[in-house]
Fold:
Amino acid sequence: MKPRVAFSMIVRNGARDLPRCLKSIRSVVDAMVVADTGSTDGTIAIARAAGAHVVSIPWQNDFAKARNLALAELRSHTSADWVLTLDADEMLDSYAPDAIAPLVLSNQYAGYTVPIRNYFRSLNTRIWDCAAVENDGRLPESRHFPAFVAHGNVRLFRCDPEIYFVARVHESVGPRILELGRKVRQCDLVIHHFGSAADQETMARKNLFYRDLGREKVREMPRNAQAHFELGLLEFDNFHDYPAASQCFERACEINPRLSLAWLFLGLARLRLKHYDRALAALQKCERLGYTAPLLAETKGDVLYNMGRFRESARSYERALRKSAGSAVMESKLGLSLLRAGHKEKGLCLLRAAPGKQPGLPELHDRLVQAFVWLGELADAADAAERKLENCPVLTPSDFLRPASIRAQLGEIRRAADLAQRGLAVFPQFPRLLAVLDELQKPPDQRLPGASLLSRTGNA
Structure:
């Protein structure tokens, strides 16, 4: 007899995404159970129209509890052999029917780790230590997103009362399956997740919500290194609270000294805090644990560069580049390190080429400007700064102040004033731009030298 697969979901106000999600799983499941935690939109009606059994459950600020209530309802409502779980902002790959069939016939495994593609609006993104890759367009609905980051989670597992979700947030059945001494295997089924590309306001609310849950999780599981690490990541990536992140990562390392990712991100947090010696010590510990991903070599290069150890930083960037071939960011960083180490031609070659690969990435233009300024080649620096204005969709007042100041140093007062005026058209009444323009419009004998403009109007 063919094994039966049931779908389990918790949802709240998912009306916008739910039809796409339920449509994607219709051909691979025998039953659908949707547990609603308090929707005020059309979620319940959409789920029922799709043929799902809908139940209302209380929200207790605990994802594992909610998902386990949904599982209990599924077990009482169906006679399923396997459970598939998705969120409303996810969908199954179109190859799902062919992928699931052989998985549920196996008697060896209690669950499968499913690759999840998290879509983003920028290639310059990562989840944990995984960098975004260019979207291959496998899923038509994803083609307007330029990049995704893949991670895995156990989303297909046996319908067994002994298998349930653990942890208030970042919940999973994986740890429970392993605790039972049963096997989990990686599979080729793919889930596509669109929630990471939500608008800024939505993401800000979600981050605050997840931080509260993360703090609760740490209070409940004070000796769980992973809980401290997850909270540290949230503080680091989403709130940029580097002292708090550093404290979380330090605690994770104390609890589990072999948690290499915690040492890596401790190094990153200390780098942001400009504690370079301590950052390097954390990264070296990560290295000794056998961690080899490109982010370690890149971060070590950043630390060494900031310590003025340019030859060593170049070697680290070279290692990172070998592991992430073609990375414009890595070529740019390597170029600046080589330049500062005395290899001008090779360094400039890399620095010039990088913006051509990703013209919209601001940091690539900034490094090229920095290199020309350091070399005293101000005309080239001004040209590079102006190319940033033409290529980067998101700009700051400093992006106009910088070329205006350099043009003033070159004696190109009219062009400098034009740049300041362009900046004011985007950032009206911005004090520093107003001050620069006012200075440039003074008679020559009353005007500050170009090099003094930024020091008098604030740091750009």
The domain at 199-291 is CATH 1.25.40.10 (Serine Threonine Protein Phosphatase 5, Tetratricopeptide repeat). The two ends are 70 Å apart (CA to CA). Residues 200-220 form the longest helix (21 residues).
